[in-house]
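Reviewers of the previous submission asked for a worked example of the structure-prediction workflow described in the proposal, so we include one complete record here. The input consisted solely of the amino acid sequence. No template or homolog information was supplied to the procedure at any stage.
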Amino acid sequence: MRRTVIQLGLVWLTAFNLRVILFAIPPSLPAIRSELGLSFSATGSITSLAVLMLGVASIPGALLATRYGARRLVSLCGVGLAVFTVSLTLPPAVFWVFAGSALLTLSIALAQPPLAVLIRRWFPDAMARAGSLYGNGLLMGSVFGASLSPYMSAAFGWRGMFLVWAVVAGIGVLLWTRFTPPDRAAAPQINLGAIARDPRAWQVAALFTFQNVVYYTVATWLPFLVKDRGPAYLATTLLFLNLFPIVLLLALAFLRWRYALSTAFYVIAGLLAAAGSLGLLLGLVELAWPLAFMVGLGAGAAFVGSVALPPLLASNESEAAGFSALMFTAGYTLAFAGPISAGLLVDATGQVTMAFWPPVIGAVLMAVVGSLAPRLLVRSRAAA
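From that input alone, the workflow returned the following structure tokens.
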């Protein structure tokens, strides 16, 4: 029992570290842009580059886990995450802001598919609970990264803020390597051809893609929309985007409702995110808090549902790793277009509000896919 609790705690902590640094980047972008003299489109491309790396490295992560072992790969990625976060603070700054962001995100991407394998392997009788805890760790990492970073940047500068998070990541990987059991078996071989022919995998990927477009674009450009109101207002706005929606979403772990296979769940999530993004597009800065909450709740709900699906729908470890790898690859690679296209719109029009067109469109498409996807997803063995 004690070992299970420790392993669950380390799954949560590892998931937390896989998001906390990534989500510390967007609140730092105004300061980075000001110091380095970047254009809006170049600034937006920092987030887009990170999202792209999350996508292109996911399938290699699943394949590397097969060769080197799931737990070992997660350990190596934890070390990389800490080291490359430190690299963001190195000169020449323009090079390392882009290179460091890409490399630390590469570490995150490689670690995600093997974690899906370990959840199935370590918790065969509690996969849903462990998957919910994993998703909670990812969400809490996004909350702390986005909400505390403005205060930390104000106190220590953006470089000092990244050094603090690098220390947290280093502590996490030390605990992981010390207290998790050695791999008793290699990660399973993955039949990517069979996974790619499964319509369920692509519908999960579509849901994941559109919620990523919504969230990452809003998280990137919301600091620019409200920056004139000061760091405290920005930090509070990001709390409404990240923390307060989680209070509601945490209840999902304790409900018997199969929300991840529910049509209504995704449609409501998409409509909430669309309404919040539309308000930001209209420049309703005075309503930034409730609008950010609507976006965060809608995108967060779709995220929790999507992340829960690979272990739930898979019939074995191989399918779990394959579904997860395809979901992350397609979802993040296609979402790359969101923040950078928003930056191009801002450069072309000179209006920050134009950056919220991609989230509006992405949220509407999320609702559309959500109205169709569960009809096929529910045919899985797990749902039966």
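The CA atoms of residues 79 and 124 lie 28 Å apart. We consider this example representative of the routine output the project will generate in years two and three.
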